[in-house]
Design a protein that fits this description.
With 221 residues, the chain is mainly α. The chain is 81% helix and 0% strand.
């Protein structure tokens, strides 16, 4: 007969706090979905009212994420939970929250600067966007696993690393394509600026995944 080790939640029976953390991580996923749809809409239609509506949605998600993060932090201190890991958890929440900020900041860049993206680069921008969002979603799953099932953390972190590498590959190809074009240098630099800032999402996801790896080891010790 096989025996299975039941996943152990970091917060034990504190269900209300678990729900808050789940809701917070849901906001990261929601921000990614909004970002993906907004970028693809921009590629299809350029600056438009629909894009601005996505921008507003992204701002609302960012605000809600901030509220949830602060509420979680307050509960951790008021209920004197996991004092030996509290610093790690607070740092993790702060860094994950920053990913939502990066999503929002990128949407504002598109809205304010209105880059003209050549049609032959649309596929590259779309693939890069899809890949970085997938990387962040893998980070979300790694974060959920850290709180609920340490045994699943490693697999999710592997996915973060894989998609970050894919994002780097797509980013490099796209930058080569841009610089090989006949566009004026100023236009090339503007396009590369957006490539780099989109790619920043996957880089941040990998950095946070590295932190989770360390935190998970500390939990097992």
């Amino acid at each position: 007969m096989f025996s299975f080790q039941k996943p152990v939640s970091l917060f034990g029976g504190t269900k209300s706090l678990e729900r808050r953390i789940d809701e917070f991580l849901d906001k990261v996923t929601e921000a990614g979905l909004i970002f993906s749809r907004a970028v693809n809409l921009y590629l299809d239609k350029g600056p438009c009212e629909e894009f601005e509506a996505f921008l507003q949605q992204g701002a609302e998600v960012e605000q809600r994420g901030d509220v949830l993060r602060r509420d979680i932090e307050t509960r951790l201190y008021e209920q004197t939970l996991i004092p030996e890991l509290r610093g790690d958890v607070l740092t993790l929440l702060e860094h994950v929250d920053n990913v939502i900020n990066i999503y929002e900041a990128n949407l504002f860049r598109f809205s304010i600067q209105s880059p003209t993206i050549p049609a032959d680069c649309h596929t590259g921008y779309s693939k890069l966007t899809e890949t970085v969002v997938t990387s962040v979603e893998s980070l979300v799953m790694a974060s959920r696993s850290f709180f609920r099932d340490l045994n699943a953390v490693r697999d999710q972190i592997s996915k973060v690393i894989f998609y970050e590498s894919e994002a780097d590959r797509i980013s490099t190809e796209l930058q080569r394509k841009v610089f090989a074009s006949d566009l004026p240098l100023a236009n090339k630099r503007h396009l590369i600026y957006f490539v780099e800032h989109i790619d920043e999402l996957a880089n941040s996801a990998e950095d946070i995944a590295d932190e989770i790896s360390i935190y998970a080891i500390k939990r097992k010790v």
